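User: Once you have settled down, look closely at the record that follows, taking as long as you need, and be ready to discuss the fold:
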Amino acid sequence: MDGVPREDWVVETLRGEDVAFRLLACRPSDRDRPRLLRLFEVRTNGSGIASLVRRLRARVGPREISVAALSPDRALLRVSVPLPPACATAFELGDFCLNCPFLQSEEGEEAAQWKVLVPRIGDARRLLRATSPASNGRSSLVRAGAFRGRGSLTGRQERALRVAYELGYFDYPRKISLAGLAARLGVGRSAALELLRKATTKLAADRFGGQLPSQRLT
């Protein structure tokens, strides 16, 4: 979904203080008031954690923020904020956020793109309705489709890899040549090699936790 409002004073404060931070977890609170609990790992650049916490606590009550210091310049920061309507709807439906729109957008942008894994396509419509009041109707569904992880093979890649394995292409010495494998797949030599290369690259990235070449920064 595109156009999700990104108003978040916590993230704005952290960005304004020029500290390194990442979101470790978030969940709705069990209190009577609907709140969103978020856990950040924060690292300052020599200025210390105490001054940052004081500035955050100036915005909310002391019970809404707690800190576990890991070092003078590094800490776990637990923050309780009002539960945004879109987050409330996602939690209610049992959806899974693949990214946080409050963190993904760049400074100065009013809206961000939100990737959500939903059991039913109807959930996406409910999420759009939940974000529309805050975004003045600017939220929109950019793309919907079946989930495919970074290590997921396409049908052609999986077939090429399976046939190559079954016919002994990966054996030493090989039991079938690239030309023979390509003939069995009904494609040219270059196409067969490309299918195998992409399939093995995906499997290696999934196995070793790396990024695919197309996902790396250049």
User: Anything to note?
Assistant: Helices lie at 9-16, 49-57, 85-93, 101-104, 121-135, 155-166, 178-185, 189-208.
